[in-house]
């Protein structure tokens, strides 16, 4: 059941859309209500065109760009939503300060040739009197993010259901970094017979191995350096698995021990799970996932790798490696090694 939180006080917050949204070209239509999205979708589909949807909360980065390009390659038309969903934030989370660089985001979408930018405000998504909730049960939402962020997945399920129903899209694209969310969305789409194929794309990492996230903008250069403990630990677990280790508790303990060295971050959880059910495993096979959440200097980050599938992230070693950091953003100025597959 959805409970009122501090985030709800922002329910009527509108994202300002100014005249400078001319960055959204004649090719990229700006849509602001579910009705406008539905009409655009119906026109495309009635013309025999397929539609791909990329749901986002904005603050777009190269991870989002990879989803957009995958959608462009597979669909005739592409729509990207930008909506910071209050229903998936808890009382003490970062809804109010979540980055909202709308003009920059719209410029990216125009540059990528996106056909429609769907930018509703909270009043359009949750009009007065809205009372319906959506909850995906079972082990999918019981542990990990479901345990540490109560109500989070109810908010995710509701907003994704509304987006997919309004868009009537053929395919929807999500990033693997949010592995538990991806499993929830797949279950949601199947259970409700929405008719949308959920496409999960590989995690995109920066040159220093850190998984791309809108919340990386919160990190100081020092905090970013400490955050590299996450991909470094996951990489070590991948190598241990490749060497023959199959005991899930050993792999999880290895990651946790590495993360807790030096008290540089606070570990929320480490788990080895079935990728579809998110049931914790005792024996890890190919395709099982290690999932991690940790907080560095007040910023909570998540990450995941697929055992026997993903390559260890390319992370600078603790000793001897020099990483050139941008003094303002803390991003490693190295070429990216990830590609969309």
Word description of this protein:
This protein is an alpha/beta fold. It folds into 2 domains: 5-201, HUPs (Rossmann fold); 214-337, Pantoate-beta-alanine ligase, C-terminal domain (Pantoate--beta-alanine Ligase, Chain: A,domain 2), CATH 3.30.1300.10. It is 33% helix and 15% strand. The chain contains 11 helices and 9 strands. It has helices at residues 34-46, 62-74, 102-111, 122-125, 139-142, 145-148, 152-167, 179-191, 221-227, 229-242, 248-260, and strands at 29-31, 51-56, 77-82, 116-118, 171-175, 197-201, 266-273, 289-296, 299-306. A 6-stranded parallel sheet has the order 1-4-3-2-5-6, with helices on both faces. It has a 3-stranded antiparallel sheet with strand order 7-8-9. Strand 3 (77-82), helix 3 (102-111) and strand 4 (116-118) form a beta-alpha-beta unit. The protein is globular, with a radius of gyration of 20 Å.
Give the helix/strand layout.
Elements: E1 29-31, H1 34-46, E2 51-56, H2 62-74, E3 77-82, H3 102-111, E4 116-118, H4 122-125, H5 139-142, H6 145-148, H7 152-167, E5 171-175, H8 179-191, E6 197-201, H9 221-227, H10 229-242, H11 248-260, E7 266-273, E8 289-296, E9 299-306
Parallel strand pairs: 1-4, 2-3, 2-5, 3-4, 5-6
Antiparallel strand pairs: 7-8, 8-9
């Amino acid at each position: 059941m959805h409970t009122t939180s501090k985030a709800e006080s922002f329910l009527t917050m509108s994202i300002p859309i100014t005249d400078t949204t001319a960055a959204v070209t004649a090719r990229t239509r700006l849509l602001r209500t579910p009705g406008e999205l539905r009409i655009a979708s119906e026109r495309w589909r009635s013309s025999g065109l397929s539609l791909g949807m990329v749901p986002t909360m904005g603050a777009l980065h190269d991870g989002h760009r990879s989803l957009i390009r995958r959608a462009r390659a597979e669909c005739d038309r592409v729509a990207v939503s930008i909506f910071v969903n209050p229903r998936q934030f808890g009382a003490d989370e970062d809804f109010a300060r979540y980055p909202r660089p709308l003009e920059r985001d719209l410029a990216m979408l125009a540059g990528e040739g996106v056909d429609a930018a769907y930018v509703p405000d909270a009043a359009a998504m949750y009009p007065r009197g809205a009372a319906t909730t959506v909850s995906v049960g079972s082990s999918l939402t019981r542990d990990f993010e479901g345990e540490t962020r109560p109500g989070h997945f109810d908010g995710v399920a509701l907003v994704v259901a509304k987006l997919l129903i309004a868009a009537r899209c053929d395919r929807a694209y999500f990033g693997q970094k949010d592995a538990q969310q991806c499993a929830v969305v797949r279950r949601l789409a199947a259970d409700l017979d929405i008719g949308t194929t959920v496409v999960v794309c590989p995690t995109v990492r920066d040159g220093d191995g850190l998984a791309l996230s809108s919340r990386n903008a919160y990190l100081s250069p020092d905090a970013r350096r400490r955050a590299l403990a996450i991909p470094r630990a996951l990489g070590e677990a991948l190598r241990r698995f490749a060497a023959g280790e199959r005991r899930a508790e050993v792999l999880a303990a290895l990651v946790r021990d590495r993360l807790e060295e030096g008290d540089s971050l606070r570990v929320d959880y480490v788990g080895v799970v079935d990728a579809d059910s998110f049931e914790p495993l005792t024996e890890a096979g190919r395709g099982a996932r290690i999932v991690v959440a940790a907080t560095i200097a007040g910023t909570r980050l998540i990450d995941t790798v697929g055992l026997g599938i993903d390559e260890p992230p390319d992370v600078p070693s603790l000793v001897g490696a020099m990483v050139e950091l941008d003094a303002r953003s803390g991003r490693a100025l190295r070429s990216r090694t990830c590609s969309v597959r």
